Amino acid sequence: MGLIIGESQNGTTYLSWAPDLSVQPNNQYTLVPNRTQLVPALEERIGFSYGGVFKCCKVTFGFGYQAQVYIDAIQSIDMTAPQVPPSLLPGAVPDDGVYAVGFERTISNFILTGPYISLGLVF
């Protein structure tokens, strides 16, 4: 069991096409600033290991099954943006577009499982 700490940054590029724009596509980019994140980590192994000490070196060999779980390690931040239809009063409000009204954060775990083989040599 352990704790991993570090900085994460999330950015997304959006491309949009609108018939009224002279430059196509319209490139938009959202960036969530760096933030420090703490991730609890669980790493366990079950298997067989052998170690031997010889005149020239120390040798270790092992094999078995391992599991690694990182809690809330993967994050995605997406813009929630509804499409605004053309207005009934042209000129009073923007004609149409997509406007960011908020950000939605999605968090999920990262899990690795499977067999392992290890070999170590120390001189």
Helix content: under 10%
**Coarse structural class:** mainly beta
Low-confidence stretches: none
**Tally of helical segments:** 0
Distance between the termini: 30 Å
Q: Average the pLDDT over all residues and give the rounded result.
A: 81
Largest sheet: 4 strands, antiparallel
Strand percentage: over 45%
What's the structural domain tally?
1
Number of strands: 6
Using the alpha-carbon principal axes, give the shape: elongated
What series of H and E elements makes up the topology?
EEEEEE
Radius of gyration: 26 Å
Strand order of the largest sheet: 1-2-3-6
Highlighted features:
4-stranded antiparallel β-sheet; 123 residues; two-stranded antiparallel ribbon; 0% helix; mainly beta
What would you say this structure looks like, in words?
This protein is mainly beta. The protein has one domain. Helix content is 0%, strand content 74%. The chain has no helices and six strands. The strands form two sheets. It has a four-stranded antiparallel beta sheet, with no helix packed on it. Strand 2 and strand 3 form a beta hairpin. The chain is elongated and about 85 Å long. The mean pLDDT is 81.
